[in-house]
Known about the structure:
By secondary structure, the protein is an alpha/beta fold.
Amino acid sequence: MKSRSFHWVVSGRAEPTYRPTRRRSMLIVTAALAVLVTGLAAGCGSEGRVEQAAGVAATVENEPAPAREPYARLDPAAFEERMKNEQAMVINVHIPYEGELAGTDAFIPYDKIRDDPRLPEDKGTELLLYCRSGRMSEEAGVDLHEEGYTNIAHLEGGMKAWEASGRQVIYNPENAAKQSAPHKM
């Protein structure tokens, strides 16, 4: 419903104008805010990945990477659990060397991981990737996926998240000496 008011124009005559009622204005503002909040909520939530399936929350700990992502994102507890699988290959992709997790199988720089001879021939072998913060292992995960590997996971938040969860990062001077590749900026 519109309310009628008069507006004086230059000619000196009063002409009726129509303005939305206060109620309609509030409805428009409320709808705009609802759209904004919904959009913001949809864009948030990258920390602690939780999948919504059929209205029930389920963590992605023990499932292969969803089709939309080339790798699974694991929190420290899930990553530690997966490391217990003797068939899995644990790879530190961080350069330069800034520490490691106990049980690491290989040190392969994230930007040189494609076609590395230390990678398993079986493209279905579980590959567990980590770095210092998670960025390099994400890049390595994408590269390995493009190379045809299908069972890839990375430590979300890297060694920083591992330490923050109360787990230990080891500094091995012998491995540090072997990993002398400069960090690519």
